[in-house]
Each structure stands twice: as structure tokens, then as C-alpha cells.
Amino acid sequence: MGDNFNENIKCSVQECKLRCSAKDCCILDNIEIGEQETNATTCECTNCESFEYLKDI
User: Fold this and answer.
1) Which of 4, 25, 28, 49 can pair with 32 through a Cys bridge, CB separation 3.0 to 4.6 Å?
2) What is the DSSP string of 38-53?
3) Phi/psi at 8 (nearest 5 deg)?
4) pLDDT digits (tens, 9 = 90+) for 15-38
5) pTM reported for the whole predicted model
């Protein structure tokens, strides 16, 4: 998705349309992180709330 990317936000989620695949970075300036569970104690308990599904073209 263009040449704009944020090297401070690493992303390996190939299904997200906000990911710059050439750099494995997010194209957004900032992202929203949310809890998947009430008392998040591990990385798996959190989600990227900015995720947008990359649909097949």
C-alpha cells in the first residue's frame, strides 16, 4: 500500500490491509490496542483494534 509506513509499529499479520508487506510495518501513525479478556496478563490477551481485513481482490 504505497511507500508510507511506520517503522515503529511492526506487523506480521498478512491478513491486515494496513500492513506494509515490504517492510513488515503498519502504515498508520498510531494504533489502538484493546483487551481480549478482562484482566490481560499475556500478549495473547490483547488485540490490535486498528486491524482491517485484507479481502481478496
Assistant:
1) 49
2) SS--SGGGEEETT--B
3) -80, -15
4) 999 999 999 999 999 999 999 989
5) 0.79
